[in-house]
From TrEMBL:
One matching Pfam family: Flavin_Reduct
GO MF terms, alphabetically ordered: FMN binding; oxidoreductase activity, acting on the CH-NH group of donors, NAD or NADP as acceptor
Entries under InterPro entries matching the protein: Flavin_Rdtase-like_dom (IPR002563), Flavoredoxin (IPR052174), Split_barrel_FMN-bd (IPR012349)
Origin: domain of life: Bacteria
Protein name (record): Flavin reductase
Location of the Flavin reductase like domain: 15-168
Family assignment from sequence similarity: Belongs to the flavoredoxin family.
Taxonomic lineage: Bacteria, Pseudomonadati, Bacteroidota, Bacteroidia, Bacteroidales
Organism of provenance: Marseilla massiliensis
Length: 179
């Protein structure tokens, strides 16, 4: 992976997060968990480039995020193999399965202590700055409650994290190409 200037990124973040999706990973290369996310934000806050990440407390990744100062966001691309990895990591718990073995993802330790993946086209290594919990009584639009409860899960915790480094990869999966 090649380190790149965060300010040089040209991704359409709406497409990258909302359509491509991303893997949110917390922990160290010795012990980590990753989950798929299609909600989040990238922007500028407190005079820093930041990512805003939403993780439900019942997710294993949440436990790692609470114990770690570092989070990574990995964008795998749009190949069929990337989509299968996103779908698997979003529907299986690291408590019950080895997501790396099941998906073929190859973890890569990053200089700031985070974990990326060899197949990623882009990895953002982030340092937590702030966290809080969403509260149902604070929704100005009550229809947003439909995203919570029952099978959907509890209210998210929100993490604001400074993007400390960005790494470009080839986004390739042994013989697969991104569309």
């Amino acid at each position: 992976m090649e380190k790149i200037d965060v300010k040089a990124l040209t991704d359409n973040v709406f497409r990258a997060i909302g359509t491509e999706w991303m893997l949110v990973t917390a922990g160290t290369s010795e012990s980590f968990n990753t989950m798929t996310a299609s909600w989040g934000c990238l922007g500028w806050l407190w005079n820093k480039p930041v990512a805003v990440v939403f993780i439900r407390p019942e997710r294993l990744t949440h436990d790692f995020a609470e114990r770690s100062d570092t989070l990574t966001l990995a964008f795998l691309g749009t190949s069929a193999q990337a989509r299968r990895a996103y779908e698997y990591c979003g529907s299986h718990s690291g408590r019950d399965t080895d997501k790396m073995a099941a998906t073929g993802l190859k973890p890569v330790g990053l200089p700031g202590g985070g974990v990326g993946f060899a197949q990623a086209r882009l990895v953002l290594e982030c340092r937590k700055l702030y966290s809080d919990s969403l509260r149902a009584d604070r929704f100005a639009d009550s229809s947003l409650g439909r995203w919570y409860g029952g099978k959907m899960g509890g209210l998210h915790d929100v993490y604001v994290a400074e993007i400390r480094a960005a790494y470009a990869g080839d986004g390739c999966w042994a013989g697969a190409t991104n569309g």
